[in-house]
Specification:
It is a single chain. The chain has 255 residues and is of the alpha+beta class. The chain folds into two domains: 3-46; 54-253, Porin. 16% of the residues lie in helices and 58% in strands. It is built from two helices and ten strands; from the N terminus they run H-H-E-E-E-E-E-E-E-E-E-E. Strands 1, 2, 3, 4, 5, 6, 7, 8, 9 and 10 form a ten-stranded antiparallel β-sheet that branches. The protein is elongated and about 65 Å long.
Length: 255
């Protein structure tokens, strides 16, 4: 082999590894193609764990601030508000179970059964005595809402609706301390001046987080305002309660 032939062979051997490396870097060999396939498979598996159900059941509970708009009844039985203008809000619990079914893409009908409350309180304190009063109105309610739900594992929830409700109880708790240091308590449950059936408007805005394939946790702040008067037409006052609070809970998907 002369010098020129030797040089040609040497040059070919030097170029061959460079050509092979270039093919690997530009993805012309099998290694990177397998990697892309694996990535695609991982993405498919991740998507399969995200559930967008057509039906789900849920349970939630929480607390909120309850108060009212109060005015004098302009009819024959009306009385001045007097000390009632000094009343303040109270903290009340609420509990709801329900089911959501899809109406169309991202829109759900939410039907629930709820136990909720409204109320107000009053406190008077002097140098040697005190008086406290608390009113609690208890209701069995059926919230009916249309909700917009959007997202993957983390979903946004927004809804509005109406809530028919039945008065199940009323409690007026009075307590006092007189100038001699003696204390006393009194509980009244008279419902004569109260409407048995009423309506409220509801608005929600919250989030839901999918923690397992068919299980999600939710946080749902709520605003509720009475559309009906709490009292009858023969009562001394007009009262419309409202609630600002929220619930946390769990939802289970069916499909």
């Amino acid at each position: 082999m002369d010098f020129f032939q030797y040089l040609k062979v040497l040059t070919f051997l030097m170029i061959l590894p460079l050509s092979t490396n270039a093919q690997i870097e530009t993805g012309k060999v099998g290694g990177p193609k397998i990697s892309k396939s694996k990535k695609s498979k991982v993405k498919t598996e991740e998507k399969s764990t995200i559930v967008n159900p057509s039906t789900l059941f849920y349970f939630g509970g929480g607390f909120g601030s309850a108060f009212r708009n109060l005015s004098e009844n302009e009819g024959l039985f009306g009385k001045p508000l007097g000390e009632r203008v000094k009343e303040t809000n109270i903290l009340v619990p609420s509990f709801t179970v329900g089911v959501k079914t899809i109406l169309k893409k991202n829109l759900f009908l939410d039907l629930g059964i709820s136990i909720t409350s409204s109320g107000e309180q009053y406190a008077l304190k002097t140098s040697d005595s005190s008086f406290n009063s608390k009113n609690t109105y208890s209701y069995f309610a059926i919230p009916i809402k249309v909700q917009y739900i959007r997202g993957n594992k983390l979903k946004m929830i927004a809804g509005i609706g109406l809530q028919p409700q039945i008065l199940t109880g009323f409690k007026k708790e009075n307590s006092w301390t007189n100038s001699k240091g003696k204390t006393g308590e009194q509980t009244l449950r008279n419902k004569e001046d109260l409407q048995v059936f009423s309506f409220s408007a509801i608005a929600n805005l919250g989030v839901s987080l999918q923690v397992k394939k068919n299980i999600s946790l939710f946080l749902l702040p709520e605003f509720r305002y009475d559309l009906s008067d709490t009292y009858t037409k023969q009562a001394a006052y007009n009262r419309k309660g409202f609630f600002i609070g929220g619930q946390v809970g769990i939802s289970l998907t069916v499909d």
